[in-house]
Amino acid sequence: MDSHSFQQNFVSLRRLAFAAVASILLLCLVLANRTWTPPACLREAAAAAEGEGGVAQVAAVIGSANHKTGTMQLVCLGKAVQAAVDTNIISNTTASDTAAVAAAGRATPGRPSFLVTYFRSSHECYGLSPSKQAFKCPRPGFPCAGDGSAALSLDGCYFSFPTVPVGVLHFVRDPWDVVTSAYWFHQQEPAPEAWIDVEFRRRALAMVAEGVPRVALEALGLDLGASQSYGELLRTLPEEVGIQLEFWRSVPDLYAMARQYQFFRLHPGGLQLRYEDLQSRWSAWVARIGARFYPRHVAALVDKAKACDVGNWSKDKLAKSNHVTAGKHSDDDRLRLQRALAQRREVRRHLCAVCAVLEYDCALWCGGKQRR
């Protein structure tokens, strides 16, 4: 082939390649309703080519659950992964060592490490001063107002990930149910977690430091200097007051969960897991997780993870569990508590804002139509 023919062929191939790329970008533009979002569209195309999720291989899988969104099942799933895949499981992973552990996962191709963590410590949050100068919020993991005090917000934070490829399992739950479940959980005797026995005055200080308005607690008629424990206080307060107190204790976590949901919608390795779906189709979701991150060990993982499915538990085991509370209370109990929350405008405003971000159907309490 002479040089002229070679150049003609090269130009033709280059034109074909350009036309193919242009066609894909045009298709992305159409599918995105004329919004310029080719990266998301291209990620979906890559996912179809490589298998569900488009994550061919990751160095680590990071599992994150907020309080009362499936923490017990997340820890159990991590142990199942360890047994089925023969890989590392690291609990209570912090932001500072996530990168190092994920990088170490490169040593086990096809068997990424499994990290159990709570991601709020990885949120980097910034405020805006009255003079419009941005500054880093003084309390790590919490958005802040212009004076630096913690605030309840869906904005003001970003999330950092290691540069190595990672997968994410993010457990979420209807925020109204999170509050009622937490209310029942924290009333138990003996206390299932040590902090519940700490004096309420210390808990109240922590809540205010995390962005809960002091006036909201005072409006409940509480003695913020009380020496009784948080659990004792919940057990003695009238139900309609106790559930509001639990809401204010829970609301910083609810906002963190919502911010994380927004983060992981944009992450190609992110998989959002609804608590409600996991309870009804646990094995199917475990199989999906396995196919995405541990494709050679799906059957073994599903088998090992059966112990995490509360649907397989005996009545005796359910009764003895202090983590699983929903089955010990009726729907009428749950609705009565949630009605008490909905009657408070400020409480309802926060819960409905979180609900909308998480795309739950909270029309019963929030009105209107929200995406499910």
UniProtKB/TrEMBL annotation:
The lineage of its organism: Eukaryota, Viridiplantae, Chlorophyta, core chlorophytes, Trebouxiophyceae. It comes from the Eukaryota. This is Expressed protein. It comes from Chlorella variabilis.
